[in-house]
């Protein structure tokens, strides 16, 4: 089916401060071929594709398109070269028509004087838009507004838009993550059509079942390197998973042995329609429960439900055997929960406030009498935690925005430790911080567990999950796919549950 | 930092800290204005004129204290002008009915508090953007002014009430206007409230990052309701003092003052993005606006040019502030 090679990327490298995102990666694709690009979170898939579509510049390597070496300057240049990318988040303007979106920035002008006045020839635009929509087999009126379309229909508009700029290589970043099952079937039919028309489709996905249904070839990335490149007939899901995770566990992540106590937090049937379904688990004193899963599996959403940020449709939460009603973060904090959120800058810290003020934010009342803040007590508490957590800051009055990522994260931790929660929920506690700070955070988590706290740790890094957790809850599409003991968990087993290959019954 | 300053002079680090202080830039502008006006006119730097300036800017400043708090949370209150007018009018109408002064004043304050609280309610429970909610109450409160008064000004207010705005308290051998004293007291109180109480901490936190503040277990809606209520209350104080000074409550009183109030806060370094601002800055900002108004009249510039100059000063002051922030 596949024709000649149209795209060849050779020895592509790209570094970001602190990480080598891509290291000497080769990648090629032929006309009429569907190439699946797979790998764990952070393996470098997106970086590679962003280089191809001009969003990032490569540090080293060559890109050869149709036998000619090219230098892709920017996204607009990539588009002119016939490379289009469809992101998970669509680039559509919801209040404009389908046709206007397909011809965004290239609207046909009316003939005659209309050209001088920059009048849009709406009839011609809609007529031509219909041709592109037909090519993807979409039954959508070009004049309907994008905001009235379903997610699947919007995706078709994105594909039609790519065709309208004469794209020959279409990159789809997790195209199925927002679709229902029928819609996925339809998308696969579209991909089939594009293939017949001789287009190249690069398909980034976490879901191996889909990869094996739709792709001709699969390329596996791990830690910025290409570790696999196989025709789909010559491989198996098991082999692909092994290649994706095949990494040695380092001793860095090791939870100290801690006596597991009585149940602390019980969650029963936690549900928010369309996001989290029927999640139940028990967390014990001194236990670290790791929560693994792919991006979009509903882990952060589950944490937000627990903490009362989003409203749950169903489900009960018990703390130390007593049911608690949590409708807001205020209730959650009162019930003894703490949340170290995913994004420090956006959710964890008030960057414009000082280290001191951030640390005491959840516990201000304890430092005040009749509303009057005791500044000495605030300073002492802040000083205590700065020393305890080894937060490197020139002084307590330093604004949080001037600290490094690792130290910012420690400030977020400090503010929750100062509130002495029974249960601490940590969402990606070590993402984007350097190795040293990471080890310090891990040591601290061990200490906290030792002191009887229960910790829920959401992480996309399997070594961290395997090293730090006593038990591991694996989520897939908003549900609990498995709850594993540390003894029975391996990277392969977790990935099999997380990608939906396996299901615990 | 942490260097001990043995010599007892300001080290370069200390200087830099003072220079980068938010209030410093605007304070320079104020000094510049006052300095040049004192040189060019022999009428500006007289006790009478200075106290006139201070008296006239006190009610704008008092309202701006509340506005400052609202803006620190990242919001805006457009209704303050109308609230000033309405609370003054309600007080005046009760007074001419023969109601005791403390009761009438209290009623006027209550009007401001209630409108402020309703603003807060529309913004939190009603999920309206602050701009829209307070634009609505700007019109509603002004409409009440016209409706209640039938369009006629309320005159013949009792002397004891007028003294609130007109009396000069003899301190030493100068008479200090009473509104100025009220303003200084309120400045100290609100400043302490913002910098020393739990509520103040929460106001800055809310403006700096609403999500993180809510995730810290703070009821951000309650903070907002309180801030808008206080803003209404302070506007009422300003409105009543203004009415006492003028001795008459017109339904059109304080019309458009919301812009002066917002300008005072913003010129004083309160960031419209939220999370930043001080009462001292607002005080300086309000002073600049009033000195400008007074100074142009003294120089002999036609009052018709006033707004154009004010607009220019606002824009220039904010631009200078941006430059200072970028340098940091």
Topology:
The complex is a heterodimer of chains A (505) and B (328).
Chain A: E1 5-16, E2 19-30, E3 34-38, H1 45-52, E4 60-65, E5 68-70, H2 75-80, E6 83-86, H3 98-102, H4 113-116, H5 122-135, H6 151-164, E7 169-173, H7 181-196, E8 200-204, H8 208-214, E9 217-222, E10 225-231, H9 237-245, E11 263-272, E12 276-284, E13 288-293, H10 299-306, E14 314-319, E15 322-324, H11 329-334, E16 337-340, H12 344-348, H13 355-360, E17 368-369, E18 372-373, H14 375-388, H15 405-417, E19 423-427, H16 435-450, E20 454-458, H17 462-468, E21 471-476, E22 479-485, H18 491-498
Parallel strand pairs in A: 3-8, 3-9, 6-7, 7-8, 13-20, 13-21, 16-19, 19-20
Antiparallel strand pairs in A: 1-2, 1-4, 4-5, 9-10, 11-12, 11-14, 14-15, 17-18, 21-22
Helix pairs in contact in A: 5-6, 9-18
Chain B: H1 12-20, H2 22-40, H3 47-72, H4 80-96, H5 101-124, H6 130-149, H7 159-166, E1 168-171, E2 174-177, H8 178-196, H9 198-208, H10 210-215, H11 220-246, H12 257-267, H13 279-299, H14 306-327
Helix pairs in contact in B: 2-13, 2-14, 3-8, 3-11, 3-12, 3-13, 4-5, 4-6, 4-11, 5-6, 5-11, 7-11, 8-9, 9-11, 12-13, 13-14
Strand line-up across the major sheet of chain A: 6-7-8-3-9-10
Largest sheet of chain B: 2 strands, antiparallel
Percent range for helical residues of chain B? over 70%
Alpha plus pi helix count of chain A: 18
Low-pLDDT regions of chain A? none
The rounded distance between the terminal residues' Cα atoms of chain A is 40 Å
DSSP strand tally of chain B: 2
- Low-confidence segments of chain B, given as residue ranges, are 1-10
Secondary structure class of chain B reads mainly alpha
Radius of gyration of chain A: 26 Å
* Number of E-type strands of chain A: 22
In terms of DSSP E residues, the strand content of chain A is: 25-35%
Computed over alpha carbons, the radius of gyration of chain B is 20 Å
Q: What is the string of SSEs of chain B from the N terminus onward?
A: HHHHHHHEEHHHHHHH
What oligomeric state do the depicted chains represent?
heterodimer
Distance between the termini of chain B: 16 Å
Largest sheet of chain A: 6 strands, mixed
């Amino acid at each position: 089916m596949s024709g000649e090679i149209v795209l060849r990327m050779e020895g592509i490298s790209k570094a970001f401060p602190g990480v080598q995102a891509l290291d000497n990666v080769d990648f090629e694709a032929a006309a009429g071929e569907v190439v699946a690009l797979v790998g764990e979170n952070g393996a470098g898939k997106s970086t590679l594709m962003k280089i191809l579509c001009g969003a990032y510049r490569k540090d080293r390597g060559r890109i050869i398109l149709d036998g000619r070496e090219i230098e892709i300057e920017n996204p607009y240049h990539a588009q002119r070269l016939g490379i289009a990318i469809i992101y998970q988040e669509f680039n559509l303007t919801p209040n404009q028509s389908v046709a206007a979106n397909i011809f965004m920035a290239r609207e046909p002008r009316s003939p005659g004087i209309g050209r001088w006045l920059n009048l849009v020839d709406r009839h011609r635009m809609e007529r031509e838009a219909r041709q592109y929509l037909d090519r993807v087999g979409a039954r959508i009126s070009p004049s309907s507004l994008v905001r009235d379309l379903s997610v699947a229909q919007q995706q078709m508009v994105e594909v039609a838009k790519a065709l309208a700029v004469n794209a020959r290589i279409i990159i789809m970043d997790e195209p199925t993550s927002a679709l229902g099952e029928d819609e996925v079937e339809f998308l696969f039919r579209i991909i089939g059509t594009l293939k017949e028309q001789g287009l190249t489709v690069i398909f980034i996905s976490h879901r191996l079942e889909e990869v094996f249904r739709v792709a001709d070839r699969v390329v596996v990335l791990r830690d910025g390197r290409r570790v696999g490149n196989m025709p789909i007939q010559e491989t198996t899901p098991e082999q692909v998973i092994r290649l994706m995770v095949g990494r040695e566990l380092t001793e860095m992540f090791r939870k100290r042995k801690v006596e597991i106590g009585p149940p602390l937090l019980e969650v029963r049937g936690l549900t928010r329609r369309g996001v989290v379904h029927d999640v139940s688990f028990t967390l014990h004193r001194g236990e670290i429960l790791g929560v693994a899963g792919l991006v979009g599996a509903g882990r952060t959403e589950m944490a937000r439900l627990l903490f009362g940020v989003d409203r749950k449709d169903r489900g009960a939460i018990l703390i130390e055997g007593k049911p608690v009603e949590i409708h807001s973060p205020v209730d959650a904090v009162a019930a003894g929960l703490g949340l170290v959120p995913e994004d420090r800058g956006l959710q964890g810290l008030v960057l414009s406030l000082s280290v001191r003020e951030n640390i005491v934010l959840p516990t201000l009342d304890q430092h005040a009498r009749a509303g009057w803040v005791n500044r000495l007590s605030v300073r002492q508490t802040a000083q205590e935690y700065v020393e305890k957590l080894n937060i490197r800051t020139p002084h307590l009055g330093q604004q949080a925005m001037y600290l490094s990522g690792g130290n910012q994260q420690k400030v977020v931790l400090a503010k929750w430790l100062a509130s002495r929660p029974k249960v601490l929920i940590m969402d990606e506690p070590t993402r984007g911080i350097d190795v040293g700070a990471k080890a310090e955070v891990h040591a601290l988590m061990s200490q906290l567990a030792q002191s009887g706290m229960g910790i829920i740790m959401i992480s996309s890094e399997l070594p961290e999950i395997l090293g730090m957790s006593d038990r591991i809850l694996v989520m897939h599409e908003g549900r609990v796919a498995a709850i594993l003991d540390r003894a029975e968990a391996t990277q392969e087993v977790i990935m099999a549950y997380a990608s939906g290959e396996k299901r615990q019954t | 930092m942490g260097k001990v300053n043995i010599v007892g002079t300001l080290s370069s680090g200390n200087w830099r800290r003072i220079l980068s202080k938010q209030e410093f830039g605007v304070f320079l502008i104020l000094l510049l204005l006052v300095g040049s006006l004192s040189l060019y006119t022999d009428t500006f730097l007289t006790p009478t004129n200075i106290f006139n300036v201070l008296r006239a800017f006190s009610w704008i400043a008092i309202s701006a204290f509340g506005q400052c708090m609202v803006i620190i949370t990242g919001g805006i209150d457009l209704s303050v002008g109308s609230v000033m007018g309405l609370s003054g009018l309600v007080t005046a109408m009760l007074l001419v009915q023969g109601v005791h002064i403390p009761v009438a004043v209290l009623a006027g304050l209550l009007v401001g508090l209630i409108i402020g609280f309703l603003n807060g309610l529309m913004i939190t429970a009603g999920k309206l953007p602050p701009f829209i909610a307070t634009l609505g109450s700007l019109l509603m409160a002004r409409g009440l002014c016209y409706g209640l008064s039938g369009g006629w000004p309320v005159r013949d207010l009792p002397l004891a009430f007028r003294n609130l705005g007109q009396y000069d308290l003899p301190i030493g051998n100068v008479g200090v206007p009473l509104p100025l004293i009220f303003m200084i007291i309120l400045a100290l109180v609100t400043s302490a409230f913002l910098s020393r109480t739990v509520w103040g901490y929460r106001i800055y936190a809310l403006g700096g990052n609403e999500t993180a503040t809510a995730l810290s277990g703070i009821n951000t809606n309650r903070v907002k309701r309180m801030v808008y209520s206080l803003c209404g209350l302070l506007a009422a104080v300003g409105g009543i003092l203004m009415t006492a000074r003028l001795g008459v409550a017109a339904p059109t009183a304080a019309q458009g003052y919301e812009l002066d109030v917002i300008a005072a806060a913003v010129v004083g370094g309160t960031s419209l993005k939220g999370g930043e601002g001080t009462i001292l800055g607002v005080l300086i900002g309000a002073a600049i606006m009033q000195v400008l108004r007074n100074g142009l009249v003294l120089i002999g510039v036609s009052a018709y040019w006033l707004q154009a100059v004010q607009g220019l000063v606002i824009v220039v002051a904010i631009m200078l502030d941006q430059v200072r922030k970028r340098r940091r």
